[in-house]
Design brief:
Layout lengths: L12 H30 L7 H58 L1
Helix pairs in contact: 1-2
Length: about 110
């Protein structure tokens, strides 16, 4: 009787790490946007002028870029997880096929 064991080592760890790093950079951008907007609002003296509006718009733009960067990192991790799951399913299917063949050989 053949020894049938299920072996699978997770792959795509580098892609998972890159996705996490991309998300981290995005969160830094969002935090930076918050700081820019708070600094702009705290520096308003008297009426709200064009310079203040430009500061707030810079913060909003940075926040939007940060959100998109976080989303890109999450998509990278999701694609790596899907590929890893697919590879694990293939390994399990091959193991089951090997086990079935071993069983058929034993019956003969």
């Amino acid at each position: 009787m053949a020894d049938v064991t299920y072996r699978y080592k997770p792959t795509f760890r580098t892609a998972q790490g890159v996705g996490s790093f991309i998300s981290f950079v995005g969160w830094l951008g969002i935090a930076g946007a918050g700081i820019v907007m708070l600094a702009t609002v705290s520096n308003v003296r008297g009426s709200f002028g064009l310079d203040d509006l430009m500061g707030l718009m810079s913060g909003v733009g940075l926040a939007m870029g940060g959100i998109l960067t976080v989303a890109a990192g999450q998509l990278t991790r999701a694609m790596a997880a899907a590929a890893d799951s697919e590879a694990e399913t293939l390994a399990l299917t091959q193991t089951l096929h090997h086990a079935e063949n071993s069983y058929q050989e034993m019956r003969l």
